[in-house]
Amino acid sequence: MKELMIKLIKGILKKDVPRSDWPLVNELIKLKIVKDDGKVLKISSRYRVGKVDISRNGTGYLEQIGIKAKDLLIEPEHLNGAAKGDLVIAKRIFKSKGRPSAKVVFIVQKAFKFSVGVFDAEKLQFLNIKTALPLAVKASKKSLKKLPDKTVAKIDNEHQIITEILGVLDDPKVDEKISLALYNKKEEFSAEAELEAKAYPDYIEPELYPERVDLSHLPFCTIDPVTAKDHDDAIYYDIKENTLYVAIADVSEYVTMYGHIDKEAKERGFSIYFPHKSIPMLPKALSEGVCSLKPDVLRLAFVCKIILDENLEPKNEEFFDAIIKSRRKYSYDRVDEFLDGKFDNLDETDKEILEFLLPLYKLTSKIREKRLQKGFEFSNPEIRMELDDNHNLLATHIETDTPSHALIEDCMLLANKAAAKMFEYGIFRTHEEPSPEKIEELLNELATIGIFTKEFKSLHSLFLSIQEQASEKNIKQYVDKLLIRTQKQAAYTAENIGHFGLGFEAYTHFTSPIRRYSDLTLHRLLKAILKNDKKRLDFIMRNIEPLTVKISELEREAAKVEWDFMDRKFARWAKENIKKEFFAIVTDPESTPIAVIEDEIAGARVFLPKVDVELFDKLYIEIIDADIATTKIIGKITRRVEEDSSIIN
């Protein structure tokens, strides 16, 4: 809905309004909020659109969208039923003195259209799974009495009805359904999208694509996690010509704009990854089928060809449609063995690929070293969960970047940078510098653990100095998390503002169209540019800004689904380990301190009672309670590491 509002703020051609949005648009026209000149629809300048934020004293603020402007004050009596997070239209109030203000005149979309409730059989009511507050549900006592205790349901807040019974809270298999329902995500595709996807055969007939460049003779390979089923990218390096080929699954060939698959993909935005399964952005007939760059089969690809000069700078960059055949599907672990000099059980295909893969690693290592003169390298280990057949948490594994990850990352960065040079306005991946206020907060936090900084000419040199001191104290991985937390979140924008973290003047996402709608959109944009298709290009550009806003929001939602699922598994595990002691690190020493467990089940956040602790204090804590519904784990300190000389740091 935010996407439509931004279009109306900028002005949208009537022919571009989706059929499903016309009822809302007609209502706004009747209210004279939207002006209709016969061709273009636009929100009147007297109105502003944004999300509502409400302070503790009840005063509201309108965080405006579509324009760069300060928040507008909304007095409590002018909220007109709007709650925190609601998307609203507000009318500006003009007055001679005081802060610019407005009053809500139309609620476009409630912040929480759906809630997830847990049934309390004793009280005959549903409680919000996140807040434990009662939820209004229109149901008779007779029907409620038939429900088992702790029934979990998805509830439509507007109509106060149960839309889906998800399961029972005591069943670990309900966790994924809860996490998806909290953000109104779904696993199943529409029947129309599935039929559309299955209409494509799982093979390529080259004679149908005479205009594509045939690269099937080149020994491309894919490098992914061992569990990967969707392979977006494949690489090949021509040593003699010093040329890198990055071949990307040509999803745009199969997903037509405004088709059934496209509609689903646009609503999902991103694939969601759980430890035991994925919720793909595209139907599996595409994501794991004809789009996936599987070994030993012909596949359509959109290729970025980069010729490097003697200084490792791109001398020529070219994009074109091609047909490729990957020779091998490698895991990161297998490639790390190669890079470590372990060459057991090689066949002729391995030998052919290693002829370019090993030199390519040396090349990308030099490129990486050069890149880090402007960009950053943060250690941000990922937690991988291992579940049993009943979806209970067995163990966690900390995954850090390895040489094989670095190899692929720098190949993809080169392709993404090349794609960003193709346009001046479109879909960029951007990352702003942290604000001065955030930097000041960071420096104050670091001072408490003995990291002090002088004045530096740039944030880059400041961060490098902090990382150097953190390494000396053997706490770099924890300090890096603070540095990441200080920075603004990367986003998709139509205008280029650069990428602070990478140190790039222009950057975009080109390499993962199977799992990111941003990349699929970029492929369409690039192809329109390459074909000089002005009509198609104009249409994409007319809708690009609101689309970037929507995709950025969907990215955050997908991440929240994954985090919520992990928190549920941690809480369920903690419930079974009450009164047991674990080693932990304090990551937030404020009013309600938080420590993160570092033992065999690493990553669980534990809330501690108000106690005097410092950032990165090492503690032993006892779990005293865990709430599976709210995912909150409560613990108490049993001993501090520095108080026990027998404990080795």
Fold and architecture overview:
With 649 residues, the chain is α+β, with helices and mostly antiparallel strands. 30% of the residues lie in helices and 28% in strands. β16 and β17 form a beta hairpin. The radius of gyration is 27 Å and the shape is globular.
Per-chain topology:
Blueprint: H1 2-10, E1 12-13, H2 22-30, E2 34-36, E3 40-43, E4 47-54, E5 60-64, E6 72-74, E7 87-93, E8 101-109, E9 114-120, E10 125-128, E11 134-135, H3 141-145, E12 151-156, E13 161-168, H4 175-182, H5 191-198, E14 213-214, E15 220-224, E16 233-238, E17 243-249, H6 260-268, E18 272-273, E19 278-279, H7 284-290, E20 298-308, E21 314-331, H8 332-339, H9 348-371, E22 382-387, E23 393-399, H10 403-420, E24 425-430, H11 436-447, H12 459-472, H13 476-486, E25 491-495, H14 517-530, H15 534-542, H16 544-575, E26 581-588, E27 594-597, E28 605-607, E29 618-627, E30 632-640
Parallel strand pairs: 14-21, 15-21
Antiparallel strand pairs: 1-3, 2-3, 4-5, 4-7, 5-6, 7-8, 9-10, 9-12, 10-11, 12-13, 16-17, 17-20, 18-19, 20-21, 22-23, 24-25, 26-27, 26-29, 27-28, 29-30
Helix pairs in contact: 1-16, 4-16, 5-6, 9-10, 11-13, 12-13, 14-15
